[in-house]
């Protein structure tokens, strides 16, 4: 019977072991770098999508709200023997965040300017509800239907839009309105909005066509009913802070340009805060007349 020969097991030399460890370490480092790059790319794409979605959603919300400005139940209004004299359901304040100082239904349209978050403006929109049989509903900031009520100023619903800091000091577009109890409350419309600028196209000569774009500070009480178009610009930022070279200069974002192409409002990011940012703009035509006709045509 043939005996099996047993050979003693030979181990790795020190050089072979160090080479194997080095190769394994390089493989782990390469895999880690690949995973890190893939994660960073995914976060950047997700951040960019979030900025685009936030900007589009916020502009769509504001555009819908602007189309409600000056709304009233025309059937009830035209049937009244004595037409009510109503103030225009559109006002604005440049560079202010003091929405809590405003109560347009009672004629309180004034608030301090010069303290807006990133010089952001305030936009005030007033409207009456629609009767139950109307095809389309009028809603407030929360999406709740505005009930039909008497055509008096104190019964008009108002939505006040402004920029303020929310949870975690994150800037957001907020809306202030009266709830069911009649008390003022505010809700966040969209987070990550750093600045809002509003301009107004005014028909200054009364020919039915807007001829000048003005800031709110240049519009007096008699001119607000002549506003035909409203232009809104929003600056939206992402969540991810992006690495950059130490000497990278701070970037500028122009929300509005004047007739000569110069910046009418410029936002400059803070040093080292290289987040993704984008400017969104829209122009809305006001479809409701600010005043009732004196008589039926």
Structural overview:
It contains two helices and eleven strands, in the order ααβββββββββββ. It is of the alpha+beta class. The strands form three sheets. It has a five-stranded antiparallel β-sheet with strand order 1-2-3-4-5, with helices on one face.
Brief account:
This protein is of the alpha+beta class.
- The SSE string, one letter per element, is HHEEEEEEEEEEE
Q: What is the residue-averaged pLDDT?
A: 85
Assign the structural class, choosing from mainly alpha, mainly beta, alpha/beta, alpha+beta, or little secondary structure: alpha+beta
Supply the number of helical segments: 2
Number of strands: 11
What Rg, in angstroms, do the CA atoms define? 29 Å
What are the segments in which pLDDT stays under 50 over at least 5 consecutive residues? none
What shape does the CA trace take? elongated
**In what order do the strands lie side by side in the largest sheet?**
1-2-3-4-5
Features:
297 residues; 5-stranded antiparallel β-sheet; 4-stranded antiparallel β-sheet
What is the element layout, followed by pairings?
Blueprint: H1 14-68, H2 74-79, E1 90-93, E2 122-127, E3 157-165, E4 171-178, E5 184-191, E6 193-202, E7 212-214, E8 227-241, E9 252-257, E10 263-268, E11 275-285
Antiparallel strand pairs: 1-2, 2-3, 3-4, 4-5, 6-7, 6-8, 8-11, 9-10
């Amino acid at each position: 019977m043939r005996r099996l020969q047993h050979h003693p097991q030979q181990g790795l030399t020190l050089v072979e072991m160090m080479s194997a460890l080095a190769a394994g370490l390089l493989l782990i480092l390469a895999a880690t770098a690949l995973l890190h790059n893939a994660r960073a790319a995914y976060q950047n794409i997700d951040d960019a999508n979030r900025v685009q979605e936030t900007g589009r959603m916020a502009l769509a919300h504001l555009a819908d709200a602007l189309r409600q400005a000056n709304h009233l139940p025309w059937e009830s209004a035209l049937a009244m023997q004595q037409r009510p004299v109503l103030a225009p359901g559109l006002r604005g304040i440049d560079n202010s965040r003091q929405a809590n100082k405003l109560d347009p239904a009672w004629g309180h349209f004034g608030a301090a300017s010069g303290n807006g978050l990133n010089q952001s403006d305030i936009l005030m929109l007033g409207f009456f509800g629609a009767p139950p049989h109307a095809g389309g509903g009028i809603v407030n900031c929360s999406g709740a239907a505005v009930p039909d009520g008497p055509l008096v100023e104190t019964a008009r619903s108002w939505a006040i839009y402004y920029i303020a800091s929310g949870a975690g000091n994150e800037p957001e577009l907020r809306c202030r309105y009266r709830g069911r109890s009649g008390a003022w409350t505010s809700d966040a419309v969209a987070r990550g909005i750093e600045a809002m600028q509003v301009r107004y196209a005014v028909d200054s000569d009364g020919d039915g066509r807007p001829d000048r774009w003005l800031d709110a500070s240049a519009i007096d009480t008699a001119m607000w009913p002549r506003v035909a178009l409203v232009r809104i610009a929003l600056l939206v930022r992402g969540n991810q802070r992006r690495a950059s070279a130490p000497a990278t200069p701070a970037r500028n974002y122009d929300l509005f340009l004047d007739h000569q192409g110069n910046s009418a409002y410029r936002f400059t990011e803070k040093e080292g805060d290289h987040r993704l940012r984008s400017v969104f703009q829209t122009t809305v035509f006001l479809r409701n007349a600010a005043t009732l006709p004196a008589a039926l045509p």
